[in-house]
Amino acid sequence: MTELERKQDRAPVPADWTYAPAPEARDIVTIEERYGHYVGGEWLEPTETYTTLSPATEEPLAEVGQATPAEVGAAVAAARDAYENGWSSLPGSERAKYLFRIARVLQERSREFAVLESLNGGKPIKESRDVDVPLAAAHFFYYAGWADKLDYAFPGRLPRPLGVAGQVIPWNFPLLMAAWKLAPALATGNTVVLKPAETTPLTALLLAEVIREADLPPGVVNILTGAGETGANVVTHEAVDKVAFTGSTEVGKVIQRAVAGTGKHVTLELGGKAANIVFEDAALDQAVEGIVNGIYFNQGHVCCAGSRLFVQESVFEPLLERLKDRLGTLRVGDPLDKNTDIGAINSKQQLRKIEELVESGVEEGAEIYQPACDLPDRGYWFRPTLFTGVGQSHRIAREEIFGPVLSVLTFRTPEEALEKANNTPYGLSAGVWTEKGSRILWMTSRLRAGVIWANTYNRFDPSSPFGGYKESGFGREGGLHGLEPYLEFEEDGRAG
Hints:
Number of strands: 22
CATH class of the largest domain: Alpha Beta
Strand content: 15-25%
Low-confidence stretches: none
Radius of gyration: 24 Å
CATH topology of the largest domain: Aldehyde Dehydrogenase, Chain A, domain 1
Distance between the termini: 82 Å
Structural class: alpha/beta
CATH superfamily of the largest domain: Aldehyde Dehydrogenase, Chain A, domain 1
Mean pLDDT: 95
Number of domains: 2
Number of helices: 16
Strand order of the largest sheet: 14-15-16-13-12-18-19
CATH architecture of the largest domain: 3-Layer(aba) Sandwich
């Protein structure tokens, strides 16, 4: 072939790099018109219902149950019966088989779960597909491996399950949070009453189908849908031995007051206002990607989002320029489009909260930047936003926004960065960007945060514990640490 022929065979360089729509098909998911509660291995017809929506289009997706106190009582009774009549005494190796089955079925039906998660929650399909569903399956695999090793996990102590766990999960990672809580509870021999968030119940209800497919004994996992009142009835029920809650700090405080003095075991994973700290020697292009992933991932609906960016003054201007350029490339739109970077805000209520806090930032004198982008006509949407000129006293620097909004502040010395980063009632997570290992160690040993990433952000693994300090809650989920909240211990008389 001559050189001329080779040149003629080459495709022309496109003049326009605009992404063509690449929607994921919806027909892989069958959504029922009406869902009941999953109790004792059966579907119960609900007494009351409400409508769950798609936040991207505001279209009704299904009618789901609004659990009453009587239905909560039935679920707790089913969990207690399953606990006392087989599950708690089942060998760990047998419990592990059920967890392995659940994990494998999740993998087999991963595309179905990803589409449903994006439909009901608004997050981009590439995040549901590549993060939420694989991590959910990984947690079941991981804790299946621990189920028959509990005696070795805690030397000198004999672990025993607690009983019935009441678990209330949030709307930002519905399937993943269900896996975080269900897997260690089941591996340790507990039974569960799970209450998904009011706005995102559908993947939890699909998970009930997986649980049936895995032949989990009736009553071991029970799933109730409903609003906050349903969750309150679950956690305060007298026959619930263990409470696990992920959500806002305000609700966490209410739960802690409600169960005080009852003897219930409690873990709370609450809000955050994480500091993402960039030093002058950091690789700026890498840091920009980490900043974007830290705050705009899942529309900023992340408790550990890096919503406060601290930049050393000497690199503030070049980093800000690159960050603004990067924001201009983010695509906002249809969550089911594989090209979408930022999907829909989860609910109208959450959108109003974001708008109100952004308005407060403008009123208090911060400078707002939003890239130009067209938003869909229907649904709940908000442009990726950053603020400069932010003071420590500004509401946008103190309050959890839970949206795609970044506050940028500056510092001169590591000591100043540390003081500003720790100046918050929260203590869930933080990030440090620097080429110096000694500086990473110095900062991480002094930052008051439960999870700290170095030169990356929002990286999760089932073997790594996650949790916070101060008003970000207490207790850990993930890893060996995630088993302990579901166990009580006796001294091992065999020791010595």
